[in-house]
Amino acid sequence: MIKILRYTEYLYLIVAVFSAYRIFTDWNSDRSMAYIFLFFAVISTAMFFFRRTYRKKFEKRQNDSKNE
Fold first, then answer.
1. Distance between CA 3 and CA 29 in Å, rounded?
2. d(CA 10, CA 25)
3. Closest by Cα among 8, 19, 1 to 48
4. Cα–Cα–Cα angle for 21, 53, 6, nearest 5°?
5. What are the pLDDT digits (tens) for 35-51?
6. Angle at 13 between CA 8 and CA 30, to 5 degrees
7. Do residues 55 and 5 make contact, with C-beta atoms less than 8 angstroms apart?
8. Which helix (H) or strand (E) holds 37?
9. How many Å apart are CA 14 and CA 57, to the nearest integer?
10. Which partner for 48 in 12, 24, 32, 61 could form a disulfide, CB atoms 3.0-4.6 Å apart?
11. Are 59 and 2 in contact (CB under 8 A)?
């Protein structure tokens, strides 16, 4: 299960990078679409850090319960 959580973290990063690419390519031609991708980039980056923190807490809790 930990491996699945780790892969979903990086999936959020991939979405953030793709969104950043679309922001730069669409900024001059379609500003409203660029704002949508800006929203996706911010949310994806925040989700990456949230999921990463959650996974590390989960791993620590598992390790602590195994050691006791």
1. 40
2. 23
3. 8
4. 65
5. 999 999 999 999 999 99
6. 130
7. yes
8. helix 31-67
9. 23
10. 12
11. yes
Task: Round to whole Å and give the CA distance between 67 and 32.
Answer: 53
- Tokens representing 11 are 């999936």
pTM: 0.82
**One-letter amino acid for residue 5 of the chain:** L
Q: Residue with structure tokens 């319960």?
A: 65
Per-residue confidence band for 2, with pLDDT thresholds at 50, 70 and 90: low
64 alpha carbon, distance to own chain's centre: 27
Contacts of 8 (CB under 8 A, 6+ apart): 51
